[in-house]
Design goal:
Layout (H helix, E strand, L loop, with lengths): L2 E4 L7 H16 L4 E5 L5 H7 L3 E3 L12 H11 L4 E5 L3 E2 L4 H11 L4 E3 L2 E4 L10 H14 L1 E2 L7 E5 L16 H11 L4 E3 L6 E4 L11 H6 L1 H10 L11 E3 L4 E3 L3 H14 L4 H14 L4
Parallel strand pairs: 1-2, 1-4, 2-3, 6-10, 7-11, 10-12
Antiparallel strand pairs: 4-9, 5-11, 6-9, 7-8, 12-13
Length: about 290
């Protein structure tokens, strides 16, 4: 089993339906998984009671009141009952095959980070997970209408307890922290698994009026975004930089030509101390492999 943790926004307006759909989907996976809800957003205590989640209202935040990644991970790991955790955004609906998929990774590696694409969709209704016909209709909508998001949008992270001893004070919901997490694991030469082909995580589209911001541009370019940028300093990767891929019954190493070429361009960012040697090797690779 696993521990899932998240920090929801206020359960008001469009975020009430979106977050109810997401959090109820997590409990729908199994009555035995541990769910931890962090932060004192409006409605968090009530939904924690409904889905039998552990509730931690006190979380360290930025000056503007946005939770810090470091404290979320620290407090979640402190009370986590299981050795594998999932940090996830509170607008993500998880598919019913999520737990069996994670088991494959657990059996394959002792330490890993598993991430994946999301599928975006407009959803204005409450999903009844106890109604099979209603749930099957929802799944068909995802298959027909869901749009696969780009590789830089990462909304869930599955990892082993203790994988990070101490994280920087990134501000969640602002650019860079998710890409830095991947960069950090690649730098430590641990497996990064892309679960996209098996795990169809659903993102419910929404506005960006929350945590004292007014739109997506402010989230990406405002003061809190600048703080994150000053922390990661351009050290970041995305889903395409995963070293492994989750299949239906196993995990395979990514070793095709496209990955090799991409990786040669990413290695100087991952290991800047060896950038000169890597660039020389890249030139030789281009020369002898007919690389364009």
């Amino acid at each position: 089993m696993i521990t899932i943790f998240s920090t929801p926004k206020d359960f008001t307006g469009i975020f009430e339906k979106i977050q109810l759909n997401a959090l109820r989907s997590w409990r729908h996976l199994s009555p035995d998984i541990q769910i931890i809800i962090l932060g004192d957003s409006k409605g968090s205590k009530e939904i924690s009671s409904e889905i039998n989640a552990d509730y931690i209202p006190d979380v360290k935040c930025s000056i503007q009141g946005t939770p810090l990644l470091s404290d979320l991970f620290y407090k979640a790991e402190k009370i986590a009952k299981f050795n594998v955790l999932t940090f996830i955004n509170a607008d993500i609906i998880l598919p019913i095959n999520f737990l069996p998929s994670i088991e494959i990774a657990i059996k394959t590696f002792t330490k890993f980070l598993l991430i994946g694409h999301r599928w975006d969709i407009d959803l204005n209704e409450i999903i009844d997970y106890n109604n099979n016909r209603h749930y099957e209709k929802f799944i068909k909508r995802i298959d027909n209408e869901g749009i696969r998001h780009g590789s830089s949008g990462i909304d869930y992270f599955v990892f082993n307890k203790g994988l990070w001893k101490k994280l920087p004070d990134f501000i969640i919901g602002r650019p860079g922290y998710d890409n830095w997490l991947i960069w950090n694991i690649r730098r430590r030469m641990l497996p990064v698994i892309d679960g996209s082909e098996v795990i169809k995580a659903v993102h419910q589209n929404h506005s960006y009026t929350f945590h004292h911001i007014q739109d997506n541009q402010e989230a990406r370019e405002g003061q809190e975004a600048i703080i994150n940028s000053n922390i990661h300093k351009g050290k970041g990767l995305n889903i395409l930089d995963s070293t492994h891929k989750l299949c239906s019954d196993r995990i395979i190493k990514v070793n095709d030509k496209n990955f090799k070429i991409r990786n040669l361009h990413r290695l100087p960012n991952i290991f800047p101390e060896f950038s000169i040697l890597i660039k020389i090797y890249r030139r030789l690779y281009k020369l002898f492999i007919n690389y364009e």
